[in-house]
User: Fold these one by one.
Assistant:
Number 1:
Amino acid sequence: MEKRSGDKAAAANGAAAPKKARTTVLRRAPPPKKDPEPQPGHVAAEEEPKTLDVTLASLDALECPLCFAPFEAEIFQCKNGHAACGSCCDRVRGTCPSCGDPIGAIRCRPLEAAIASMLVPCSFASAGCDRRRLRYAERRAHEASSCHHAPCACPLPGCAFSGLQHLLHDHIRDAHHQAAGDDGEGAAAAAVGFVREATVALRRSEAFRVLLHAQDSRVFLLLNGGGVPFGRSLSLLALGPRPAAAGGGTLEYTVVVRAADGGGGALSLSASGPVPCARRWAGHHPTDGFLFVPDAYWSSSGTVSVTVHLGTEAGGRGAGAGGRRQALLDASCTTK
Ligand SMILES: [Zn+2]
Ligand SMILES: [Zn+2]
Ligand SMILES: [Zn+2]
Ligand SMILES: [Zn+2]
């Protein structure tokens, strides 16, 4: 369209004196409803977005001053201009901690607009990530669970290792797994390797069990959380980036729990869903999507029987051949 109008102008210019024609176009007020057909120079100026490369000396303005997380969605301010993210407004019950005025009703639109327009490179660009124009609001999620160049942190207490997913797998296998295999009790049984099936003993007192998938070099955490009355919460977390979309769909889990010594009767408990992925475990247990295991299911010695199945929900694209990935990740872990 732009070209055609340009051609038109050029054709008109061809017929009349070029300079005169151009002057006429410039002077003409733009028609209110017609397609804009101003002089070519004008068209280009209107359609090219204005951009500005900026270096920020400090990121303070882009972070919530209460929780220090990057502003990503709605930003609120009190009438004195103190800003806070939406979840902090809820947390402080709508009272600005700086001045005591109400906060949570007035949006800070200019800052929201500025953040929405910001494109930034992934922090792991130097490690090979090619996402150089991420939206600022999406960068944290990309780096936390999607970036295949971001290092994953070893979850074991006192260990500072951090490396790519397969390196983390090898690290845990070599540095932590040996001790794990020998000793069924105590801090030892930290990690269990599995290909298709593995046996672990999940104790009530342990916060998590590491499951190492050798074929895919993936690390899973079977999280055993407290904080729920009259029982425990079991959930699964994959330490590493979400599998690439082309690799075929979502990673799915099924966890089945049976009472270790028949204390809970023949009933088993189960939960299933997509496996959340993160490159570090922050130490808290997911509050959504967990399996509640009542106290009665834990044996007198404090163990429970857990079976974990992993598979990949075949994605829509190329599901025919991609479905075989399911077999790769089939696994089960059981306790005595
Ligand atoms: Zn906040
Ligand atoms: Zn305030
Ligand atoms: Zn990245
Ligand atoms: Zn480690």
Number 2:
Amino acid sequence: MSTLSDHMRNGDAGPTDDHADAAELADIGADVGTDGPVDDDVTCVVQDLPARLRVRAAELAATINPVNSPFTQAGLPDGGLPDPADLAVLTSKYWGRRRRTLTVSFVESTAAELRQRILGHMNAWGIGVRFALTSGVGQVRISRAGQGYWSYLGTDILLIPRDRPTMNLQGFTMATPEREYKRVVRHETGHTLGFPHEHLRRSLVGRLDVAKTIAYFRTTYGWSEQQTRSNVLTPLEESSIMGTPNADQDSIMCYQLPAQITKDGQPIRGGLDINLTDRGFARTIYPRFWPFVDQTDWDQSADVSIESALTQEHVTVG
Ligand SMILES: [Zn+2]
């Protein structure tokens, strides 16, 4: 994600924000090491829509938030309009900058305590998009029964049939350690907000040894070569990435990848929680506050006369 210094230069967060963030981050270390089961053999895959829906999804994303369109970001290309399927690959899936609430429901019967705990971690991003539980069918639908950790990306969730989940948190219970809530629930929520995997940035993919990476994912997760190539070894098109000049291996959206599969023998550290850079970038996409606009004046033609004001002095309640 983008650098914090970029974010500070843009003036999106004042010192108060950053003190608050520092306090939140200082809190992180406290519960690392909490007892409880952890599925080390579970990893995250961003869910893709069926191929037949990808062009529709790109149109929807650009309608909800025109900034998603590659044309908005880069202007019309030379040589005419590209194929819609090619454009779909370049289209991001962010919700718009307007403040909004996304509703959340659970596919399986889920105790109130667990629902609230998951919701609290979804809202830990602290941005202009909030998540709220609904007793009906939510825009975000969470299952704990499916396999793995996953979410669809951003506005794609609106194209998922309403009887199907948009996010899966395999086996999450109240016994799951707090650190896993931070690492997994916040990460999957990042996908729901439209953030792709940070380890797919070209500079991080370029550090991976292809053969070792394929072997590692086969051994650790049972993935085929094709699954590893598409989920780990195929970099994102840089033109589809909004405002993020540098890859951040400590991003919550980055996998932890071991030293044994990198060319330089150094691990890709991966994020365990939303870091300051993540939060700063997320707030540029989803500001929490709008600039102050003076709403105390109007066009002179609408001024109320004394006569008209007096007619409103005594109103009848009815
Ligand atoms: Zn993921």
